[in-house]
Protein backbone atom coordinates (compact mmCIF):
# COMPACT_ATOMS: atom_id res chain seq x y z
CA UNK A 1 0.00 0.00 0.00
CA UNK A 2 2.82 2.33 0.89
CA UNK A 3 4.61 1.43 -2.33
CA UNK A 4 1.48 2.30 -4.33
CA UNK A 5 1.08 5.56 -2.44
CA UNK A 6 4.70 6.42 -3.03
CA UNK A 7 4.39 5.59 -6.72
CA UNK A 8 1.24 7.71 -7.08
CA UNK A 9 2.98 10.50 -5.24
CA UNK A 10 5.99 10.46 -7.57
CA UNK A 11 3.66 10.20 -10.57
CA UNK A 12 1.36 13.11 -9.75
CA UNK A 13 3.42 15.25 -7.41
CA UNK A 14 6.95 15.39 -8.76
CA UNK A 15 8.93 18.43 -7.70
CA UNK A 16 9.46 20.71 -10.67
CA UNK A 17 11.00 24.15 -11.02
CA UNK A 18 8.52 27.02 -11.07
CA UNK A 19 10.11 28.13 -14.33
CA UNK A 20 8.78 25.07 -16.14
CA UNK A 21 5.11 25.85 -15.64
CA UNK A 22 5.93 29.53 -16.19
CA UNK A 23 7.46 28.69 -19.58
CA UNK A 24 4.35 26.70 -20.50
CA UNK A 25 2.15 29.62 -19.36
CA UNK A 26 4.04 32.11 -21.50
CA UNK A 27 4.13 29.84 -24.56
CA UNK A 28 0.43 28.93 -24.36
CA UNK A 29 -0.47 32.55 -23.65
CA UNK A 30 1.49 33.85 -26.62
CA UNK A 31 -0.13 31.30 -28.89
CA UNK A 32 -3.62 32.19 -27.64
CA UNK A 33 -2.89 35.89 -28.16
CA UNK A 34 -1.74 35.31 -31.72
CA UNK A 35 -4.61 32.91 -32.40
CA UNK A 36 -7.40 35.23 -31.25
CA UNK A 37 -5.86 38.53 -32.40
CA UNK A 38 -5.14 37.24 -35.90
CA UNK A 39 -8.71 36.00 -36.24
CA UNK A 40 -10.32 39.08 -34.73
CA UNK A 41 -12.19 40.10 -37.91
CA UNK A 42 -13.08 36.54 -38.80
CA UNK A 43 -14.49 35.81 -35.33
CA UNK A 44 -16.58 38.98 -35.58
CA UNK A 45 -17.79 37.84 -39.00
CA UNK A 46 -18.74 34.44 -37.61
CA UNK A 47 -20.59 36.06 -34.71
CA UNK A 48 -22.55 38.13 -37.21
CA UNK A 49 -23.64 35.04 -39.12
CA UNK A 50 -27.37 34.45 -39.27
CA UNK A 51 -28.84 32.71 -36.19
CA UNK A 52 -29.95 29.75 -38.37
CA UNK A 53 -26.44 28.31 -37.96
CA UNK A 54 -26.18 28.82 -34.21
CA UNK A 55 -25.80 25.49 -32.38
CA UNK A 56 -24.33 26.34 -28.98
CA UNK A 57 -21.73 24.01 -27.50
CA UNK A 58 -19.50 23.89 -24.45
CA UNK A 59 -19.64 26.78 -22.03
CA UNK A 60 -22.45 28.46 -23.99
CA UNK A 61 -24.62 25.34 -24.41
CA UNK A 62 -27.42 27.02 -22.47
CA UNK A 63 -27.84 29.91 -24.91
CA UNK A 64 -31.06 29.98 -26.91
CA UNK A 65 -29.89 32.56 -29.42
CA UNK A 66 -26.65 34.36 -30.29
CA UNK A 67 -25.64 37.60 -28.62
CA UNK A 68 -25.16 40.86 -30.51
CA UNK A 69 -21.81 41.39 -32.21
CA UNK A 70 -21.15 44.40 -29.96
CA UNK A 71 -21.25 42.24 -26.84
CA UNK A 72 -19.16 39.60 -28.55
CA UNK A 73 -16.55 42.20 -29.46
CA UNK A 74 -16.39 43.33 -25.82
CA UNK A 75 -15.80 39.69 -24.87
CA UNK A 76 -12.98 39.43 -27.41
CA UNK A 77 -11.30 42.65 -26.28
CA UNK A 78 -11.56 41.62 -22.61
CA UNK A 79 -10.09 38.23 -23.46
CA UNK A 80 -7.17 39.84 -25.29
CA UNK A 81 -6.46 42.26 -22.44
CA UNK A 82 -6.52 39.44 -19.89
CA UNK A 83 -4.39 37.39 -22.27
CA UNK A 84 -1.65 40.02 -21.94
CA UNK A 85 -1.92 39.88 -18.14
CA UNK A 86 -1.72 36.07 -18.32
CA UNK A 87 1.48 36.19 -20.36
CA UNK A 88 3.01 38.82 -18.09
CA UNK A 89 1.88 36.97 -14.98
CA UNK A 90 0.32 40.10 -13.52
CA UNK A 91 -2.08 39.49 -10.61
CA UNK A 92 -2.28 35.90 -11.79
CA UNK A 93 -4.60 34.77 -8.98
CA UNK A 94 -7.28 36.97 -10.51
CA UNK A 95 -6.29 37.37 -14.13
CA UNK A 96 -5.31 33.72 -14.62
CA UNK A 97 -8.76 32.23 -13.90
CA UNK A 98 -10.51 35.17 -15.55
CA UNK A 99 -8.55 34.77 -18.78
CA UNK A 100 -8.97 30.99 -18.82
CA UNK A 101 -12.74 31.27 -18.37
CA UNK A 102 -13.16 34.06 -20.92
CA UNK A 103 -11.12 32.12 -23.47
CA UNK A 104 -13.32 29.09 -22.81
CA UNK A 105 -16.48 31.15 -23.38
CA UNK A 106 -15.04 32.93 -26.43
CA UNK A 107 -13.95 29.75 -28.19
CA UNK A 108 -17.10 27.87 -27.16
CA UNK A 109 -19.09 30.63 -28.84
CA UNK A 110 -16.80 30.61 -31.88
CA UNK A 111 -17.30 26.84 -32.19
CA UNK A 112 -21.09 27.12 -31.95
CA UNK A 113 -21.65 27.82 -35.63
CA UNK A 114 -22.00 24.35 -37.22
CA UNK A 115 -18.35 23.38 -36.83
CA UNK A 116 -16.28 22.42 -33.80
CA UNK A 117 -12.59 23.02 -34.33
CA UNK A 118 -11.09 20.24 -32.24
CA UNK A 119 -7.66 21.77 -32.61
CA UNK A 120 -8.76 24.42 -30.07
CA UNK A 121 -9.59 21.85 -27.37
CA UNK A 122 -6.11 21.24 -26.00
CA UNK A 123 -5.19 24.92 -25.89
CA UNK A 124 -8.31 25.80 -23.90
CA UNK A 125 -7.95 22.89 -21.48
CA UNK A 126 -4.25 23.58 -20.89
CA UNK A 127 -4.90 27.28 -20.28
CA UNK A 128 -7.68 26.39 -17.84
CA UNK A 129 -5.15 24.36 -15.84
CA UNK A 130 -2.51 27.09 -16.07
CA UNK A 131 -4.99 29.81 -15.16
CA UNK A 132 -6.14 28.14 -11.97
CA UNK A 133 -2.73 27.03 -10.69
CA UNK A 134 0.49 28.70 -9.60
CA UNK A 135 1.82 29.21 -13.10
CA UNK A 136 3.13 32.71 -12.46
CA UNK A 137 5.52 32.20 -9.56
CA UNK A 138 8.43 32.70 -11.96
CA UNK A 139 9.06 34.81 -15.05
CA UNK A 140 6.18 37.07 -14.16
CA UNK A 141 5.35 40.53 -12.89
CA UNK A 142 4.03 38.90 -9.71
CA UNK A 143 7.37 37.19 -9.07
CA UNK A 144 9.27 40.38 -9.81
CA UNK A 145 7.13 42.48 -7.45
CA UNK A 146 6.96 40.02 -4.59
CA UNK A 147 10.24 38.12 -4.89
CA UNK A 148 8.32 34.85 -4.87
CA UNK A 149 10.36 31.72 -4.13
CA UNK A 150 11.15 29.75 -7.26
CA UNK A 151 12.58 26.54 -5.78
CA UNK A 152 11.50 23.20 -7.21
CA UNK A 153 8.31 22.04 -5.53
CA UNK A 154 5.48 19.59 -6.12
CA UNK A 155 3.01 22.47 -6.30
CA UNK A 156 4.58 23.31 -9.69
CA UNK A 157 4.75 19.65 -10.67
CA UNK A 158 1.14 18.52 -10.39
CA UNK A 159 -0.33 21.08 -12.81
CA UNK A 160 2.30 20.11 -15.39
CA UNK A 161 1.45 16.44 -14.82
CA UNK A 162 -2.24 17.26 -15.18
CA UNK A 163 -1.58 19.02 -18.47
CA UNK A 164 0.27 15.92 -19.67
CA UNK A 165 -2.58 13.69 -18.48
CA UNK A 166 -5.31 15.80 -20.12
CA UNK A 167 -3.31 15.84 -23.36
CA UNK A 168 -2.78 12.09 -23.28
CA UNK A 169 -6.47 11.55 -22.45
CA UNK A 170 -7.57 13.44 -25.56
CA UNK A 171 -5.45 11.22 -27.81
CA UNK A 172 -6.69 8.12 -26.00
CA UNK A 173 -10.30 9.24 -26.58
CA UNK A 174 -9.57 9.70 -30.29
CA UNK A 175 -8.22 6.14 -30.48
CA UNK A 176 -11.14 4.77 -28.50
CA UNK A 177 -13.66 6.47 -30.82
CA UNK A 178 -12.10 4.68 -33.79
CA UNK A 179 -12.39 1.31 -32.08
CA UNK A 180 -15.93 2.07 -30.95
CA UNK A 181 -16.94 2.99 -34.51
CA UNK A 182 -18.42 0.71 -37.18
CA UNK A 183 -15.09 -0.85 -38.07
CA UNK A 184 -13.64 -1.67 -34.66
CA UNK A 185 -10.10 -3.00 -34.88
CA UNK A 186 -10.45 -3.20 -38.68
CA UNK A 187 -9.89 0.55 -38.64
CA UNK A 188 -6.14 -0.11 -38.52
CA UNK A 189 -6.29 -1.89 -41.90
CA UNK A 190 -6.16 1.55 -43.46
CA UNK A 191 -9.17 1.41 -45.75
CA UNK A 192 -11.19 3.70 -43.49
CA UNK A 193 -8.33 6.16 -43.07
CA UNK A 194 -7.81 6.23 -46.83
CA UNK A 195 -11.50 6.94 -47.38
CA UNK A 196 -11.27 9.80 -44.86
CA UNK A 197 -8.33 11.29 -46.70
CA UNK A 198 -10.17 10.84 -50.00
CA UNK A 199 -13.38 12.45 -48.69
CA UNK A 200 -11.40 15.39 -47.38
CA UNK A 201 -9.63 15.90 -50.71
CA UNK A 202 -12.87 15.64 -52.71
CA UNK A 203 -14.60 18.16 -50.42
CA UNK A 204 -11.79 20.63 -50.96
CA UNK A 205 -11.89 20.24 -54.72
CA UNK A 206 -15.69 20.51 -54.88
CA UNK A 207 -15.56 23.81 -53.03
CA UNK A 208 -12.83 25.39 -55.09
CA UNK A 209 -9.80 24.62 -52.91
CA UNK A 210 -6.75 22.66 -53.91
CA UNK A 211 -6.31 19.19 -52.45
CA UNK A 212 -2.87 17.94 -51.38
CA UNK A 213 -1.22 16.08 -54.25
CA UNK A 214 0.22 13.60 -51.77
CA UNK A 215 -3.31 12.31 -51.14
CA UNK A 216 -3.61 11.39 -54.84
CA UNK A 217 -0.21 9.70 -54.85
CA UNK A 218 -0.88 7.72 -51.68
CA UNK A 219 -4.42 6.64 -52.57
CA UNK A 220 -3.17 3.80 -54.78
CA UNK A 221 -1.02 2.40 -51.96
CA UNK A 222 -3.34 1.00 -49.31
CA UNK A 223 -0.43 -0.52 -47.39
CA UNK A 224 0.81 2.98 -46.54
CA UNK A 225 -2.55 3.76 -44.91
CA UNK A 226 -2.36 0.44 -43.07
CA UNK A 227 1.03 1.44 -41.68
CA UNK A 228 -0.23 4.92 -40.76
CA UNK A 229 -3.34 3.38 -39.18
CA UNK A 230 -1.32 1.02 -37.00
CA UNK A 231 1.09 3.74 -35.89
CA UNK A 232 -1.79 6.17 -35.21
CA UNK A 233 -3.59 3.60 -33.10
CA UNK A 234 -0.42 2.82 -31.11
CA UNK A 235 0.17 6.55 -30.51
CA UNK A 236 -3.44 7.20 -29.50
CA UNK A 237 -4.20 4.17 -27.36
CA UNK A 238 -0.68 4.19 -25.94
CA UNK A 239 -0.95 7.82 -24.84
CA UNK A 240 -1.61 7.04 -21.14
CA UNK A 241 1.75 5.22 -20.99
CA UNK A 242 3.42 8.55 -21.69
CA UNK A 243 2.61 9.56 -18.12
CA UNK A 244 4.52 6.72 -16.55
CA UNK A 245 8.04 7.59 -17.53
CA UNK A 246 9.78 10.82 -18.50
CA UNK A 247 11.64 9.42 -21.51
CA UNK A 248 8.59 7.48 -22.67
CA UNK A 249 6.59 10.69 -22.39
CA UNK A 250 9.02 12.59 -24.59
CA UNK A 251 9.18 9.70 -27.08
CA UNK A 252 5.39 9.58 -27.27
CA UNK A 253 5.15 13.36 -27.66
CA UNK A 254 7.60 13.32 -30.57
CA UNK A 255 5.59 10.59 -32.30
CA UNK A 256 2.29 12.38 -31.76
CA UNK A 257 3.88 15.58 -33.05
CA UNK A 258 5.11 13.72 -36.16
CA UNK A 259 1.59 12.36 -36.64
CA UNK A 260 0.23 15.92 -36.89
CA UNK A 261 2.86 16.81 -39.47
CA UNK A 262 1.82 13.71 -41.41
CA UNK A 263 -1.81 14.89 -41.29
CA UNK A 264 -0.67 18.25 -42.63
CA UNK A 265 1.20 16.76 -45.60
CA UNK A 266 -1.43 14.18 -46.50
CA UNK A 267 -4.64 16.09 -45.73
CA UNK A 268 -3.52 19.72 -45.59
CA UNK A 269 -5.21 20.06 -42.19
CA UNK A 270 -3.36 22.53 -39.99
CA UNK A 271 -3.56 21.88 -36.27
CA UNK A 272 -1.41 24.87 -35.34
CA UNK A 273 -1.10 24.37 -31.58
CA UNK A 274 -0.13 20.76 -32.21
CA UNK A 275 2.20 21.41 -35.16
CA UNK A 276 4.04 24.06 -33.17
CA UNK A 277 4.64 21.40 -30.53
CA UNK A 278 3.06 23.57 -27.83
CA UNK A 279 0.52 20.92 -26.89
CA UNK A 280 3.44 18.66 -25.92
CA UNK A 281 5.54 21.25 -24.11
CA UNK A 282 4.64 19.89 -20.67
CA UNK A 283 6.36 16.60 -21.53
CA UNK A 284 9.71 18.38 -21.86
CA UNK A 285 11.86 20.60 -19.64
CA UNK A 286 10.15 23.67 -21.06
CA UNK A 287 12.20 26.10 -18.97
CA UNK A 288 15.18 25.34 -21.21
CA UNK A 289 13.39 27.23 -24.00
CA UNK A 290 14.71 30.34 -22.30
CA UNK A 291 18.34 29.27 -22.77
CA UNK A 292 18.77 30.88 -26.20
CA UNK A 293 17.36 34.16 -24.85
CA UNK A 294 19.73 34.06 -21.89
CA UNK A 295 22.64 33.32 -24.20
CA UNK A 296 21.60 36.22 -26.41
CA UNK A 297 21.35 38.60 -23.44
CA UNK A 298 24.73 37.40 -22.21
CA UNK A 299 26.24 38.10 -25.62
CA UNK A 300 24.68 41.56 -25.72
CA UNK A 301 25.98 42.22 -22.20
CA UNK A 302 29.49 41.11 -23.20
CA UNK A 303 29.51 43.45 -26.19
CA UNK A 304 28.01 46.33 -24.20
CA UNK A 305 29.47 46.17 -20.68
CA UNK A 306 27.89 49.51 -19.82
CA UNK A 307 24.43 48.15 -20.53
CA UNK A 308 25.21 45.06 -18.43
CA UNK A 309 26.36 47.29 -15.58
CA UNK A 310 23.21 49.37 -15.79
CA UNK A 311 21.09 46.21 -15.80
CA UNK A 312 22.97 44.85 -12.83
CA UNK A 313 22.50 48.07 -10.92
CA UNK A 314 18.79 47.96 -11.63
CA UNK B 1 6.56 12.80 -15.05
CA UNK B 2 9.78 13.04 -13.16
CA UNK B 3 11.74 16.24 -13.11
CA UNK B 4 14.21 16.90 -15.88
CA UNK B 5 17.64 17.02 -14.36
CA UNK B 6 16.67 19.71 -11.90
CA UNK B 7 17.85 19.75 -8.33
CA UNK B 8 14.94 18.58 -6.25
CA UNK B 9 13.94 19.52 -2.76
CA UNK B 10 11.06 17.28 -1.73
CA UNK B 11 8.92 18.96 0.92
CA UNK B 12 6.47 17.19 3.24
CA UNK B 13 3.22 15.84 1.76
CA UNK B 14 1.09 18.54 3.29
CA UNK B 15 -1.66 20.05 1.20
CA UNK B 16 -1.80 17.40 -1.52
CA UNK B 17 -5.36 16.32 -0.85
CA UNK B 18 -6.87 19.33 -2.63
CA UNK B 19 -4.74 19.01 -5.76
CA UNK B 20 -5.37 15.24 -5.79
CA UNK B 21 -9.12 15.89 -5.86
CA UNK B 22 -8.66 18.45 -8.63
CA UNK B 23 -6.63 15.94 -10.67
CA UNK B 24 -9.24 13.20 -10.21
CA UNK B 25 -12.12 15.53 -11.06
CA UNK B 26 -10.36 17.04 -14.09
CA UNK B 27 -9.51 13.63 -15.52
CA UNK B 28 -13.04 12.37 -14.95
CA UNK B 29 -14.47 15.40 -16.76
CA UNK B 30 -12.04 15.14 -19.68
CA UNK B 31 -12.62 11.41 -20.13
CA UNK B 32 -16.41 11.59 -19.62
CA UNK B 33 -17.19 12.18 -23.34
CA UNK B 34 -16.17 8.54 -23.95
CA UNK B 35 -19.79 7.74 -23.00
CA UNK B 36 -20.92 9.29 -26.30
CA UNK B 37 -19.48 6.25 -28.11
CA UNK B 38 -22.18 4.09 -26.52
CA UNK B 39 -25.11 6.36 -27.39
CA UNK B 40 -27.33 5.90 -30.41
CA UNK B 41 -27.05 9.60 -31.24
CA UNK B 42 -23.71 10.79 -29.86
CA UNK B 43 -23.26 14.52 -29.39
CA UNK B 44 -19.89 16.22 -29.67
CA UNK B 45 -19.01 19.32 -27.68
CA UNK B 46 -16.23 21.76 -26.89
CA UNK B 47 -13.66 21.63 -25.37
CA UNK B 48 -14.79 18.22 -24.12
CA UNK B 49 -14.97 15.94 -27.11
CA UNK B 50 -15.06 12.23 -27.82
CA UNK B 51 -13.02 13.02 -30.95
CA UNK B 52 -15.20 11.29 -33.54
CA UNK B 53 -13.23 12.54 -36.55
CA UNK B 54 -11.64 9.83 -38.71
CA UNK B 55 -13.76 7.15 -37.01
CA UNK B 56 -16.64 6.90 -39.50
CA UNK B 57 -17.08 4.32 -42.25
CA UNK B 58 -17.19 6.11 -45.58
CA UNK B 59 -19.23 5.17 -48.62
CA UNK B 60 -17.39 4.32 -51.89
CA UNK B 61 -19.61 7.02 -53.42
CA UNK B 62 -18.95 10.51 -52.08
CA UNK B 63 -21.85 12.95 -51.87
CA UNK B 64 -21.14 16.64 -51.45
CA UNK B 65 -22.21 20.12 -52.41
CA UNK B 66 -20.47 22.35 -54.89
CA UNK B 67 -20.87 25.92 -56.10
CA UNK B 68 -20.70 26.42 -59.84
CA UNK B 69 -20.35 29.63 -61.81
CA UNK B 70 -21.45 29.62 -65.46
CA UNK B 71 -20.33 32.27 -67.94
CA UNK B 72 -22.00 33.49 -71.18
CA UNK B 73 -20.32 30.76 -73.19
CA UNK B 74 -21.59 28.08 -70.82
CA UNK B 75 -18.20 27.36 -69.26
CA UNK B 76 -18.44 26.06 -65.71
CA UNK B 77 -16.11 27.12 -62.90
CA UNK B 78 -16.00 25.71 -59.40
CA UNK B 79 -16.36 28.59 -56.96
CA UNK B 80 -14.62 28.86 -53.62
CA UNK B 81 -16.48 28.10 -50.40
CA UNK B 82 -15.40 31.47 -48.99
CA UNK B 83 -17.96 33.13 -51.30
CA UNK B 84 -20.77 31.41 -49.40
CA UNK B 85 -20.03 32.40 -45.84
CA UNK B 86 -17.63 33.44 -43.12
CA UNK B 87 -15.22 31.28 -41.16
CA UNK B 88 -12.97 28.37 -41.92
CA UNK B 89 -13.38 26.09 -44.94
CA UNK B 90 -15.10 23.25 -43.09
CA UNK B 91 -17.35 25.66 -41.24
CA UNK B 92 -18.63 27.15 -44.49
CA UNK B 93 -18.93 23.70 -46.05
CA UNK B 94 -21.18 22.65 -43.18
CA UNK B 95 -23.20 25.84 -43.47
CA UNK B 96 -23.84 25.10 -47.14
CA UNK B 97 -24.80 21.55 -46.21
CA UNK B 98 -27.18 22.81 -43.50
CA UNK B 99 -28.94 25.18 -45.89
CA UNK B 100 -29.24 22.53 -48.60
CA UNK B 101 -30.64 20.07 -46.09
CA UNK B 102 -33.14 22.67 -44.88
CA UNK B 103 -34.29 23.35 -48.46
CA UNK B 104 -32.81 26.85 -48.33
CA UNK B 105 -30.05 26.47 -50.94
CA UNK B 106 -31.43 29.51 -52.77
CA UNK B 107 -30.14 31.74 -49.95
CA UNK B 108 -26.63 30.36 -50.40
CA UNK B 109 -26.93 30.85 -54.14
CA UNK B 110 -27.91 34.49 -53.76
CA UNK B 111 -25.13 35.18 -51.26
CA UNK B 112 -22.57 33.69 -53.65
CA UNK B 113 -24.01 35.52 -56.66
CA UNK B 114 -23.85 38.85 -54.81
CA UNK B 115 -20.21 38.27 -53.91
CA UNK B 116 -19.35 37.14 -57.42
CA UNK B 117 -20.81 40.39 -58.78
CA UNK B 118 -18.42 42.37 -56.55
CA UNK B 119 -15.36 40.25 -57.34
CA UNK B 120 -12.90 41.48 -59.95
CA UNK B 121 -10.55 38.53 -60.20
CA UNK B 122 -10.88 36.31 -63.27
CA UNK B 123 -13.11 34.57 -64.17
CA UNK B 124 -15.59 36.27 -61.84
CA UNK B 125 -16.52 39.25 -64.09
CA UNK B 126 -17.74 36.83 -66.78
CA UNK B 127 -19.91 34.64 -64.58
CA UNK B 128 -23.59 35.18 -65.19
CA UNK B 129 -25.22 32.31 -63.31
CA UNK B 130 -24.48 30.56 -60.01
CA UNK B 131 -25.68 27.09 -59.15
CA UNK B 132 -25.64 25.14 -55.92
CA UNK B 133 -25.31 21.47 -56.79
CA UNK B 134 -25.30 18.23 -54.84
CA UNK B 135 -22.95 15.88 -56.66
CA UNK B 136 -21.96 12.25 -56.27
CA UNK B 137 -18.56 10.85 -57.23
CA UNK B 138 -17.17 7.33 -57.20
CA UNK B 139 -14.16 7.73 -54.96
CA UNK B 140 -11.90 5.18 -56.70
CA UNK B 141 -12.64 6.70 -60.11
CA UNK B 142 -12.07 10.20 -58.76
CA UNK B 143 -8.59 9.27 -57.60
CA UNK B 144 -7.88 7.50 -60.87
CA UNK B 145 -8.35 10.78 -62.70
CA UNK B 146 -12.03 10.62 -63.63
CA UNK B 147 -13.63 13.49 -61.73
CA UNK B 148 -16.91 13.29 -63.61
CA UNK B 149 -19.89 13.23 -61.27
CA UNK B 150 -22.09 10.14 -61.42
CA UNK B 151 -25.05 12.35 -60.55
CA UNK B 152 -25.82 16.04 -60.14
CA UNK B 153 -28.81 17.63 -58.48
CA UNK B 154 -29.38 21.35 -58.91
CA UNK B 155 -30.42 22.64 -55.48
CA UNK B 156 -30.61 26.29 -56.54
CA UNK B 157 -29.72 28.56 -59.44
CA UNK B 158 -29.63 32.34 -59.65
CA UNK B 159 -28.43 35.14 -61.87
CA UNK B 160 -25.43 37.25 -60.87
CA UNK B 161 -26.64 40.83 -60.24
CA UNK B 162 -25.11 43.78 -62.04
CA UNK B 163 -21.67 44.69 -60.70
CA UNK B 164 -21.57 47.30 -57.94
CA UNK B 165 -18.62 49.36 -56.77
CA UNK B 166 -15.86 47.08 -55.48
CA UNK B 167 -15.97 46.09 -51.84
CA UNK B 168 -12.79 44.88 -50.19
CA UNK B 169 -12.05 41.18 -50.24
CA UNK B 170 -10.59 39.85 -47.07
CA UNK B 171 -8.72 36.60 -46.74
CA UNK B 172 -10.25 34.56 -43.97
CA UNK B 173 -8.51 31.85 -42.11
CA UNK B 174 -9.81 28.93 -40.11
Question: What's the short version?
Answer:
The complex is a heterodimer of chains A (314) and B (174). With 314 residues, chain A is an all-alpha fold.
Protein traits:
heterodimer, A: 314 residues, globular, disordered C terminus, B: 174 residues
Structure, explained:
The complex is a heterodimer of chains A (314) and B (174). The longest helix of chain A is centred in the middle third of the chain and has 27 residues, at 154-180. Mean pLDDT of chain A is 91; it is low at 307-314. With 314 residues, chain A is mainly α. Chain A folds into two domains: 15-152, no CATH class; 159-289, no CATH class. Chain A contains 15 helices and no strands. With 174 residues, chain B is an alpha+beta fold. Chain B has two domains: 13-55, no CATH class; 61-159, no CATH class. In chain B, 27% of the residues lie in helices and 20% in strands. Chain B is built from four helices and four strands, in the order H-E-E-H-H-E-H-E. Chain B has helices at residues 17-31, 89-101, 105-118, 139-143; strands at residues 61-71, 76-78, 127-138, 151-159. In chain B, strands 2-1-3-4 form a four-stranded antiparallel β-sheet. In chain B, a hairpin with a 4-residue loop joins strand 1 (61-71) and strand 2 (76-78). In chain B, helix 2 (89-101) packs across helix 3 (105-118). Chain B is elongated, with a radius of gyration of 25 Å. Chain B starts with 16 loop residues before the first helix and ends in a 15-residue tail after the last strand. Chains A and B meet through helix 1, helix 3, helix 5, helix 6 and helix 8 of A and helix 1, strand 1, helix 2 and helix 4 of B.
